[in-house]
Specification:
Chains A, B: This is DNA-binding response regulator. The structure is a homodimer. Chain A is about 50% helix and about 15% strand. Chain A is built from 11 helices and 5 strands. Chain A binds a DNA duplex through α8 and α10.
Chain lengths: ~210, ~210
DNA sequence: CCGACAATACCGCATTTGTATGATTTTCAG
DNA sequence: CTGAAAATCATACAAATGCGGTATTGTCGG
């Protein structure tokens, strides 16, 4: 017989934690090794006793699940982390992936789907809900229009935006370019209109091509 | 009766194209509307007659499948593109996603898997092979070695900085985090002290690791 | 238990910034 | 040459921001 997949669960709500544990432990080929109520507990224990897969709730009291993964992943590189959440259309997906999670599923997934996901994760996959997967795939897409958005800017406007990107104030930019602060502000205003933004940070983000 | 999913196939090898067409057209709920031997042909025709899903081979004579998607996607935003390839561990995955593809499967996938993938793609998912999905998820992972100056920030401060980085004002952040604007400003002030900066843009630059 | 620290919140002030309106000069392509 | 676009500058106002001080509450490690 093949070795079972060892699982740990981090979930603050008693009822959910229990039922997850029972589900996993009851299924063939899985064993629920550890359960935790808080990220802090998990952090402490999982470093010493690594498991194959960790089911991690995101919304935990104290340290949240994402932060927990961020700290745990470097210390247990072989452990795979699956985020469990109730929200599916959140920015947190990307934060979770950045932190080192490899799977992201919804709590309302049916039990057999959950077990399938654990298996898939353990076998080298990255199970995600449909909408999440689509979101992730879409995040790579670069529309050809977006990259050229800066083309509408004049040379002078780019010079100014470049300095704004370094954190300079309009007065500083004015001094650097030997023009009046008023002029710089006018340019900034024009830049905002062209880029359709309303603040420095937004403008700089577009300029440096981040979202 | 529900409308069938309309499919187009772009594949230069006669035998494969034929068998794919027969598979799709023969299955319930699918209809193979068009087939093409080259990217150029597809480009010409698909703009006028959009379909729901396009199965796109990557390795085509002349223009490759990825370039074809790049040009087709902006003109048929509602069409979903599924790349079909024989290699699974290629850098081309990311290029395909950037170009606008939403699915990436292997040619050696069993027929029923292919049909499943088409359905999933059409219903808002992003079907990928396990290894591909893992590769994509992993590409987001940032190891904590890169950033260390941010360690002095508390969790709350990071949350706030994260939103500042998206261009939100202190009022917006306050609303998002359900606290008073005054509190947010205080946090921002503390962040500035810790990071040794004096403006939002500078703080965001440090946060995102720009120089 | 206590001290350090995080998070919360308020008041206030000077400056910067975002927005608007208007005008003059330079530059450059048709 | 000529008109459009770019660059320049000014004034004005409301809002946002940066900076300072102060205070309460809660948590956590020692």
């Amino acid at each position: 017989m093949k070795t079972s997949i060892s699982v740990a669960i981090v979930e603050d709500k008693e009822a959910i934690r229990q039922s997850l544990a029972i589900l996993v432990d009851g299924a063939d080929g899985f064993v629920c090794r550890l359960t935790f109520e808080t990220a802090e507990d998990a952090l402490d224990q999982l470093t010493r006793e690594p498991v194959d897969v960790v089911l991690m709730d995101i919304d935990l009291p104290g340290m949240n699940g994402i932060e927990c993964v961020r700290q745990l992943k470097p210390r247990c590189p072989q452990t795979q982390f699956m985020m469990c959440t109730v929200y599916d259309e959140d920015e947190t997906v990307f934060d979770a992936l950045k932190a080192g999670a490899t799977a992201y599923i919804l709590k309302r997934s049916p039990p057999h789907k959950l077990l399938e996901a654990i298996t898939e994760l353990h076998e080298g996959g990255a199970p995600m809900s449909s909408t999440i997967a689509r979101k992730i795939a879409g995040s790579f897409h670069v529309s050809p229009s977006a990259s050229n958005e800066l083309d509408v800017l004049t040379t002078r406007e780019r010079e100014i935006l470049d300095r704004l990107a370094k954190g300079h104030s309009h007065k500083e930019v004015a001094t650097e370019l030997f023009v009046s602060p008023t002029t710089v502000r006018k340019h900034i205003f024009n830049i905002y209109e062209k880029l359709q933004v309303h603040s420095r940070v937004e403008a700089v983000n577009k300029y440096l091509g981040r979202k």
